[in-house]
């Protein structure tokens, strides 16, 4: 199987599967597991850096995570999140910051928002930078929404989400993440656009799914209700390290095969 391209995403045949990764070893592992896309998400702020939301991570940290993921040379498409306040201020700044992520190895960037960022999406796309949209729950609006709340619950909100999806599509985005909206709303959005919708916490009527790696493998302190844990890597790590501690304390490690005279 060859490298996954933007064109492969645009075709959107069969459910597309994405997951986040923020470093070299996990990028290798998720790629070997067969995902179509790896998102270097600004969720790194929370699951890697222990911050309470995604607002605290900057472009330099995101570039460093992106470079680490890209060094794994994944088959999967590498998409990097543009962090809070790196694209909202002015389009030139957005171009400069998107280029920083592309130079670090991103094959596309993701921006949160709808109609209000359509011009910026268009500028990036015209400059040759593929853009993935992100509507519904936008974690970068955490302060305005007062937390991580489901979006699109009223008819008016749902209608606006469809408008947002269309605006982002028209601006040239090749796919859209739809986060934490009712399944029926995600279905309407999916039916209203010609680019693939990649859903998280928005049900099955989408062209693909995305989850945060640390929720999937059991390394998150707290996971959203819509995530599914497939493994308990936390227990595995704790148990391995506890064994190491015990063996050093008891003088079992290092054993003869672990050193030279
Ligand atoms: O940063 C992230 O992990 C994301 C996903 C939740 C889609 O944007």
Strand-helix topology:
Layout: H1 6-11, E1 16-20, H2 24-32, E2 37-40, H3 44-47, H4 59-70, E3 77-81, H5 91-104, E4 108-110, H6 118-126, E5 131-136, H7 142-145, H8 155-170, E6 175-179, H9 183-192, E7 197-200, E8 208-211, H10 213-216, H11 233-250
Parallel strand pairs: 1-2, 1-8, 2-3, 3-4, 4-5, 5-6, 6-7, 7-8
Q: Please indicate the percent range of residues in DSSP E strands (runs of 2 or more).
A: 5-15%
CATH architecture of the largest domain: Alpha-Beta Barrel
| Strand-pairing-aware structural class | alpha/beta
Strand order of the largest sheet: 1-2-3-4-5-6-7-8
Q: What characteristic shape results from the CA principal axes? A: globular
Task: Spell out which ligands are present.
Answer: 3-methyl-2-oxobutanoic acid
Q: Return the domain count.
A: 2
How large is the radius of gyration?
20 Å
Topology as H/E string? HEHEHHEHEHEHHEHEEHH
């Amino acid at each position: 199987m060859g490298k996954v391209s933007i064109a492969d995403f645009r075709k959107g045949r069969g459910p597309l599967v994405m997951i986040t990764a923020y470093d070299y070893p996990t990028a290798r592992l998720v790629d070997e597991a067969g995902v179509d896309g790896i998102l270097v998400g600004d969720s790194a702020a929370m699951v890697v850096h222990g911050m309470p939301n995604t607002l605290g991570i900057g472009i330099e940290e995101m570039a460093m995570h992106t470079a680490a993921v890209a060094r794994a040379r994944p088959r999967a498409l590498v998409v990097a999140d543009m962090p809070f306040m790196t694209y909202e201020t002015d389009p030139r700044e957005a171009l400069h910051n998107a280029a920083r992520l592309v130079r670090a190895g991103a094959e596309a960037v993701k921006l949160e928002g709808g109609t209000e960022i359509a011009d910026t999406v268009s500028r990036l796309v015209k400059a040759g930078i593929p853009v993935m949209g992100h509507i519904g729950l936008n974690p970068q609006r955490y302060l305005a929404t007062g937390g991580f709340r489901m979006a699109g619950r009223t008819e008016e909100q749902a209608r606006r989400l469809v408008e947002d999806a269309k605006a982002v599509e028209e601006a040239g985005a090749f796919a859209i993440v739809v986060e934490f909206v009712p399944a029926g709303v995600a279905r309407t959005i999916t039916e209203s656009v010609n680019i693939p919708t990649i859903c998280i916490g928005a049900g099955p009527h989408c062209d693909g799914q995305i989850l945060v790696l640390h929720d999937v493998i059991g390394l998150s302190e707290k996971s959203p209700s819509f995530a599914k844990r497939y493994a308990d890597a936390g227990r595995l790590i704790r148990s391995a390290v506890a064994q190491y501690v015990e063996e050093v304390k008891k003088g079992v490690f290092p054993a003869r095969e672990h050193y030279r005279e």
